[in-house]
Amino acid sequence: MKTIWINAGELSGDMQAAALLTALREREPELAAIGMGGPNLARAGQKNLFRVESLSVMGIMEVLTALPRALHMLSQIKKEMARLRPDAVVLVDAPEFNFRVAKIAHGLGIPVYYFIPPKIWAWRTGRVRFLQRYVKRLFCILPFEPAFYAKHGVQVDYIGNPLVDMVNWPELEKIEPIKGRIGLMPGSRRKEVEALLPEFGKAARILLQQGRDVTFHCLRAPNMPEEKLRALWPSDVPVAFDAPEDRYTAMRRCGCMLAASGTATLETALAGVPTVVSYRVAPFSALVGRLLIKVKWVSLTNLIMQKELFPELLQERATGEMMASQLAAWLDMPPQIEAVRAELAELRRRCGEPGSAARAAEKLLEALKES
């Protein structure tokens, strides 16, 4: 019986890794999975020796402050990996942590595969040499990635995007958005929620003060307690805090959304919901980012479409006033928001057909037989 170690470094990776593990076990029911993950991987059958929630940070300063915890976890991972000797290690995104896991596994002679590799095409492209040395094969989920990696001599497969399977468009298309409902997705990390949710609240207050017939629904991440969110939200502004079982149906019921940059903005795009993208990190992290980042946009939707389809309000522009202004423009000009919705059909086409987890599982099992 083969055992794989899946290492997801954040909650979005946990969700997508769970789809991969489900597909693997459909083909190899005896396959055992251990490693680092969250609730989704646990439900898919992985024994989580380490919890993904312990490490959900983003930005240079945020990573540095979590460093002692991360180093302790890495030493424990090395001990467990050496003791259990899995047949392969599958890394999921989270390069700051997972690159170190790759070195540990490589040092133990365990083959390493990367599902959803890091966005090194965006910044620190020199890290491609690390992948050449320590990773046997990459499974990419963004349509522009294979050309980048192939150019650098890295073994790569494009499998399509797992979110296409999760966001069931044929079913969602039948759902009519509720007029005036604005969705809020402030993220799953404590720092990003603390930075963004108060500004979302300001935007909501401004729209209500303008006399608009709007309601606000916050789709909270499973790891984020409602009390925490309520403490960051203005008490005089009505809001519903939902932890929906079917998050995509909940998204689809919104006419438009405010969302933290990240996987969520591709989810909303695939669900056909125009979204204002926002993000803030610590000033030092922002400065480093401006110096190093090589792409025009931060949201995956805009990168795939190669234009700013979703407005991006980042750092000093991530204010309630600017968010309210953009949402008001959409509310006042229905043809503008309809044009965004129409273009999302092309995005769905570019993200590929359903079945990406199955394609990844087949290619990974092939690779394991060869190793």
Tell me about this structure.
The protein has 371 residues and is an alpha/beta fold. It has 2 domains: 3-160 and 355-370, Rossmann fold; 169-351, Glycogen Phosphorylase B (Rossmann fold). The chain is built from 18 helices and 13 strands. The strands form 2 sheets. A 7-stranded parallel sheet has the order 3-2-1-4-5-6-7, sandwiched between helices. Strands 10-9-8-11-12-13 form a 6-stranded parallel sheet, sandwiched between helices. Helix 1 packs across helix 18 (356-370). The longest helix has 20 residues, at 190-209. The radius of gyration is 20 Å and the shape is globular. The two termini are 15 Å apart. Mean pLDDT is 89; it is low at 57-61 and 286-292.
Basic shape: globular
What is the number of helical segments per DSSP (H or I, 4+ residues)? Answer: 18
What share of residues are in beta strands? 15-25%
Q: Would you report the number of β strands? A: 13
User: Which structural class do you get from the secondary structure elements?
Assistant: alpha/beta
Major sheet characteristics: 7 strands, parallel
CATH topology name of the largest domain, in short, is Rossmann fold
The level 1 CATH classification of the largest domain is Alpha Beta
CATH 4th-level superfamily of the largest domain: Glycogen Phosphorylase B
- As a percent range, the share of helical residues equals 40-55%
